[in-house]
Amino acid sequence: MTGKLTQLWATKTKDDEWWSSFVTAPLGILANYTAVDVSWITPNRITAASFLVAVVASIGILVGGTACFIAAAVLIHLSHILDCMDGQLARYRRVSSPEGSYYDRLTDQVQVTLWFGAAGYAAYAQTASVVPVFLAMIGIAFYGLRGYAKYVALEIETARDPNYPKDMARLKQVETAAGLGFGLRANWTWFLREQRKVFAFDEGVFIFMLSAALVLDQLSPMLWVFAASQLFWGAYKAWSRGKNIGKNRKLFFPK
User: Fold this and answer.
1) Distance between CA 25 and CA 10 in Å, rounded?
2) pLDDT of the residue at 253
3) Chain mean pLDDT for the chain
4) DSSP string of the chain?
């Protein structure tokens, strides 16, 4: 049992997002303990299931009401556990593929849009104010800008230097510092350090933030935080990546 869990823990993303790192990803590993031995369960099918659950959660938010909000919060977590499982399963079976990674990231982007778009509508239905809708739109737009700026910068830098992606991947390598085989002190230190990631306001934070807002029925305050955080990080990431391209520029690239 321990040997299998150790192998599964090794499939966990080393520098995972907040909440994913110490909640949904470990739960995904536990679920994969059985799933990896079931042949018809494949990474792509788990990706599809994750997205389907995310869509159902969005419908629950749109329907509204305490029961639907709580159900949606549970489904959002289930979707994210499945989202962690697909990559873990692929790495465990050594069947990782560019195609699988592509659809995994694509569905992640869409489901964030669905969740917060639904939350904006639900808050509008509660308050009869269009402000939550605009907050959701701002948050979704600038969250998308974070990813768009990253891949545009990657395309430009790769055109300049084909080894750029490999160099960046090497710089971002993170050593395993916690989990099975590590002592209580090492795991506690790792857990405390992980809390800094909450300020990144990425998908791992959204899972907790949106779910808590649904359970507590506090959608409008959550949307203010969502919009403000994504406005800051989207603008900052876009500016910093452009600045880095300017520093690294050796060739002229037409628009």
Assistant:
1) 12
2) 47
3) 90
4) -HHHHHHHHTTS-TTPPTTIIIIIHHHHHHHHHHHTT-TT--HHHHHHHHHHHHHHHHHHHHH-SHHHHHHHHHHHHHHHHHHHHHHHHHHHHT---HHHHHHHHHHHHHHHHHHHHHHHHHHHHHH--SHHHHHHHHHHHHHHHHHHHHHHHHHHHHHH-TTHHHHHHHHT-----SSTTS-HHHHHHHHHHHGGGGGG--HHHHHHHHHHHHHHT-HHHHHHHHHHHHHHHHHHHHHHHHHHHHHH--S----
Report the distance separating Cα 226 and Cα 240, nearest Å.
21
Q: Rounded to whole angstroms, how far apart are CA atoms 134 and 119?
A: 11
Distance CA 61, CA 70 (A): 9
For residue 252, what pLDDT is reported?
Answer: 47
**CB of 104 within 8 A of CB of 83?**
yes
- In the chain, the percentage of residues whose pLDDT exceeds 90 is 69
User: Which pLDDT tens digit goes with each residue over 8-25?
Assistant: 988 998 888 999 999 999
Is the predicted pLDDT of residue 180 greater than 70, yes or no? yes
Task: State residue 28's pLDDT score.
Answer: 95
Please answer whether residues 241 and 150 qualify as being in contact, where contact means their C-beta atoms are separated by less than 8 angstroms: yes
pLDDT: which is higher, 118 or 5: 118
Q: How far apart are CA 110 and CA 79, in angstroms?
A: 13
Residue with tokens 């959660």: 57
